[in-house]
Design brief:
Elements lengths: L1 H20 L5 E2 L8 H13 L3 E2 L2 E4 L1 E2 L5 E4 L9 E7 L18 E4 L2 E8 L2 E6 L5 E7 L10 H10 L20
Parallel strand pairs: 1-4
Antiparallel strand pairs: 2-3, 3-5, 5-6, 6-10, 7-8, 8-9, 9-10
Helix pairs in contact: 1-2, 2-3
């Protein structure tokens, strides 16, 4: 029963986020598959801590409403939405044996968070890779330079989702390469 209670609490948090940001201008964002209650709770904590504006866009509701998703898009703006999904599967570029596996994938460290970067058909997908929960941010190419969205999200990620080793705080930056 405790797991069901936590899942119910996360669901209520999602409804609270939905009510807070309204449904009139909601952005369609697919919700990551079922996640354990502890992941749902940390995702709800993250979405609650996210900023109200990002790259000049206002936080808006998502459809379906979920405590695992967030979006930024101003009413009347012709810019596409910036979206966030919490609790996504491990990126295939990190999965040995997958067609996208890339053992040379590099992380960019921005304000204490390690992000993997993948080009998409319309911009970039950034995935927080050193947290125990994978967090994905899609930034359309209309926002040049796309990485400028990441500093505004870093503190919420650091404060809400522990690192992969279970400890709080910023991600571990790589050691400098000799000669650099």
């Amino acid at each position: 029963m405790p797991a069901a209670g936590a899942a119910g609490a996360a669901g209520l948090a999602g409804l609270a986020v939905w009510a807070l940001f309204g449904s009139a201008s909601a952005v369609a964002v697919s919700v990551p598959g079922p996640v354990p209650s502890v992941v749902a709770a940390d995702c709800a904590k993250l979405t609650k801590a996210l900023p109200q504006s990002l790259l000049g866009q206002r936080r808006t509701g998502t459809k379906p409403a979920s405590a695992q998703t967030a979006a930024w898009q101003s009413n009347g703006s012709n810019l596409p939405a910036i979206t966030l999904r919490c609790g996504v599967p491990e990126p295939t570029m990190l999965v040995s044996g997958s067609k996208d596996y890339d053992p040379t994938s590099e992380e960019s460290y921005i304000n204490g968070v390690a992000w993997l970067m993948q080009q998409t058909s319309d911009g970039y997908r950034f995935t927080a890779a050193q947290r125990y929960i994978f967090i994905e941010v899609d930034v359309p190419s209309a926002y040049t330079v796309e990485t400028m969205a990441l500093p505004g999200l870093a503190q919420a990620v650091i404060d809400s989702v522990p690192r992969g080793d279970g400890t709080p705080g910023p991600d571990t930056a790589p050691l400098p390469t000799p000669g650099q």
